[in-house]
């Protein structure tokens, strides 16, 4: 039986596929497809991939072909009639701001446009534009943004954003800005400390 050759990945797609396969917020179907493509890129036989992921061999072959034709965006569910799919807004925001707002080099652009990001994520242009307007995101003005590598970041973002979108009754949010050290007295405090004090009147 012939073994299919290793699937060639587009530049930057291994990282993106790894996120799709790992992040708990990604739908299970899309996570499986990402795992299929990653295993195929590692040269695993289709039958072995099918056993590992828990799908049929024809399914593996089908998703290999879909990726080869359309990249990561082709792994998304095709539009269906009826109720529209729910789009994860936090996922779109994170994708826009990660890597200091720079798209993958293979795209040949310096910052995201709604159309390019929509194609990359497999969602509609209108959805990306709507989310950007809602969160006041302007990719062409993103400079020097550092996205935390904290593995718990996504859960923390959801907790904070959730307080804004659906605050519980009688909730009180406290923000604490921690300082690593005492910055010392400022100019006003230094001047006050150096100023002479008025003498106290003598006791009579």
Give Rg in angstroms: 26 Å
Q: Helix/strand/pairing class, anyone?
A: mainly alpha
Helix tally equals 9
Average predicted confidence as pLDDT: 77
Largest sheet, described in full?
A: none
Overall 3D geometry?
globular
Outline the low-pLDDT stretches.
Answer: none
* Assembly form of the protein: single chain
DSSP helix fraction: 40-55%
Summarize the helix and strand pattern as letters.
HHHHHHHHH
Separation, N- and C-terminal Cα atoms: 113 Å
Number of strands: 0
Q: Which terms would index this structure?
A:
204 residues; mainly alpha; 9 helices; 46% helix; globular
Secondary structure elements and pairings:
Elements: H1 13-22, H2 28-41, H3 46-53, H4 57-70, H5 89-97, H6 114-121, H7 125-134, H8 153-165, H9 187-194
Overview of this protein structure:
With about 200 residues, this protein is an all-alpha fold. Among the domains are: about 15-75; about 90-165, no CATH class. It is about 45% helix and about 0% strand. It has nine helices and no strands.
Describe, in short, the structure shown.
Helices cover 46% and strands 0% of the residues. By secondary structure, the chain is mainly alpha-helical.
């Amino acid at each position: 039986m012939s073994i299919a050759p290793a699937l060639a990945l587009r530049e930057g797609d291994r990282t993106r596929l790894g996120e799709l396969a790992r992040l708990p917020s990604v739908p299970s179907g899309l996570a499986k497809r990402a795992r299929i493509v990653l295993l195929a890129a590692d040269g695993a036989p289709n039958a072995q991939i099918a056993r590992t992921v828990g799908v049929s061999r024809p399914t593996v072959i089908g998703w290999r072909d879909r990726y080869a034709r359309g990249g990561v965006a082709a792994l998304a569910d095709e539009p269906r009639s009826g109720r529209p799919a729910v789009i994860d807004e936090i996922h779109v925001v994170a994708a826009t701001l990660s890597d200091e707002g720079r798209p993958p080099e293979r795209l040949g652009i310096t910052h995201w446009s709604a159309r390019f990001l929509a194609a990359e994520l497999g969602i509609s242009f209108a959805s990306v534009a709507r989310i950007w307007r809602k969160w006041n995101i302007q990719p062409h003005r993103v400079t020097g943004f550092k996205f935390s590598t904290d593995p718990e970041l996504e859960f923390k973002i959801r907790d904070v954003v959730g307080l804004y979108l659906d605050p519980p009754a009688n909730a009180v949010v406290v923000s604490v800005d921690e300082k690593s050290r005492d910055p010392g007295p400022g100019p006003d405090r230094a001047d006050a400390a150096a100023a002479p004090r008025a003498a106290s009147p003598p006791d009579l």
